[in-house]
Amino acid sequence: MRPLSVVDVGDPRSLLEPLTKALFGGGPAVLPRPGGARISHTAPLEVDDQIALVIETSGTTGAPKRVGLSAEAVLAGAEMTSRELGEGGTWLLALPAHYIAGVQVCVRAHLAGGEPLYLHPEPFTSIAVASRADDVAKARAAGPVFTSLVPAQLQRLLDDSRDMPTLLQVLQSFDAVLVGGQAVPSTLLEQAHQAGVKVRRTYGSSETAGGCVWDGRPLSGVTLREHEGRIAIAGAMLAEGYIDNPAKTAEHFIQESGTRWYLTDDSGSLDSTGTLAIDGRMDDTIISGGIKVSLAQIERVIHDTTMAKDAVVVASPDDTWGQVPVLVSTTAVDRDSVRAELAKQLGVHARIDRVMVVDTMPMLASGKPDRRALTALVAGVRHG
Description:
384 residues; Rossmann fold; 2 domains
C-alpha cells in the first residue's frame, strides 16, 4: 500500500511539489482538496501502490466518489494533449486545482518545463484574468499559451470583454482555450468565434484523466465505442477505479477481448467518420407521462434559441405526469415561446412545465450547475 497525502490547494502552488513527487519520484499519492479546518477528515490513510492521484468528484446528480489514477494514466492524458497542441507552451490556471482539469494544467506546465501562470490569490473573475495580461503577453512572445475553462467561465469572460479591451486581448492571445466539463452551447461557440477566441471543445472526466475527446474526435491513443447505449472509452489514461468502492469500479470498468474500457454515464453515437455526438446523460432521462425525455436535449434547444444561456433543466415531481421538466435560469424567458420551440424540435413531450427565475445559479466549485440543489429547489414549487 502507498501513503496518501491530502494537499490543501487553496493556494494551487502548494500542489506542484507533492504532485511531482507522486508522479515522478515515488512519493505519497496525492489527494488535492480546497482546504479547511478538517482537510484530512474522511480521507483514507493509504491507497493501492499503483495509485498516484486521487480526485474527488462532487457530482451534479449523484453521490460523491473518489477516482484513483496511476502516474502512467495522468501522464498519458497530459502527453495526449501535448501531441495535439504541440510540445511546450505556457498554461494559465483558471480552474480549481482539486479538479482533474486543474491538475492537468499543472502537469502539462511541468512537462513543458515550467509552472502555470496563476490567478491566485485572486479568485476567478474577469478582472483577475485581465490583470495577467502582461504575463500572458510575455509568455506569448516566447511561445504558445493555453488555458482550460468550463463553459460558464468562458461565457462570463466573453460577456465582460465587450467592455474590457484588455480582457479581450488576453482571450485572443491564447493559442487554444480548452472548454469542457459539460456541454458547450453552440451559441457560446459562435460568440467565441466572432470574438476571435480559439476554442477547443473537450470531453472527458476524472476517470479518463481529463479531456480525451476534442471537438468530437478522440485524441491519439483513445478508442471510443458504444456499449449498451453508453459511450465507452479505452486508452492508457483510464483510472484504476474508485477508491474503496469495488462494486462501482466493476460497474464502470470492464475488460473485453484484452481491452479495458470505461463505461461513461453518457449516451451518444459515433458517425461514419468516428466523430462523437453526446445525446445526454443516462441519468438525466426522465419518464414523463410514460415517455422518455432527455433533459440535456431540452437544455441544448433552450441555449440555442433563447437568451437564457445559463439555463438548467431539472425534473420535478408531478401528480399527473410523474415527472416534468422545469427550466431554471437567472434570465426570464417566455414560457409559451419556449414550449412551442421545444415541441417543434423535440416533440410535445419535451415541453417544459414552467420557468423558475433565480437571482443566482447554485454552482459547484468546478463551475458546473449544482443540479441536486436545483432539483431540491424546484421540487417545492407547485405547478402553476
